[in-house]
Amino acid sequence: MQNLQQVVDFLKGNNLILATAESCTAGLMASLVADISGSGAVMECGYVVYAVRAKREMLSVSLETIDRFGLTSEEVAREMALGALQRCGAGVTLANTGLAEAEGPMDGVVCFACAMIIGGEQRVLSETCKFDGERNAVREQAARHALLALDRYVNDLRNPAMTQG
């Protein structure tokens, strides 16, 4: 997809309702969708979960996962996406966690996950990307990346060979 209108149109065309679970982008994905006219028909809710406690209490991210893989990992993003999926009426969830500003190689690294229930089975996929720029530029790029990749994520989730667990 090339723009946010296409994201809303994709959701409408596929009868999907979106929920977001955002750490790094702090609600920016939900806000970008809400900027598009007609988005109320395709947006369920958005979770903003910066703190470990919020991730655990609101989305059931396990402390073991956080301790083992780190707060900004694909594993945590996957649990965030699944937690949102289990808690609301959305048909698809997008989650992210990462470091919009950090010293060293983790600067600009953001982990994404997308989850759906297909045929009664929870499916989730994830990826990690690195973005360049200042803090808010990284957040903007990350939010747009996830939303514009939604069609790819959904198509991959619908293909069981593409999902991991």
UniProtKB/TrEMBL annotation:
Keywords: Hydrolase
Domain of life of the source: Bacteria
Keyword Signal: no
Originating organism: Halopseudomonas bauzanensis
CinA C-terminal domain span: 5-153
NCBIfam families named among the record's database cross-references: PncC_domain
Lineage of the species this protein comes from: Bacteria, Pseudomonadati, Pseudomonadota, Gammaproteobacteria, Pseudomonadales
Key word Hydrolase present: yes
Sample GO molecular function, one term: hydrolase activity
Protein name: Amidohydrolase, PncC family
InterPro entries: CinA-like_C (IPR036653), CinA_C (IPR008136)
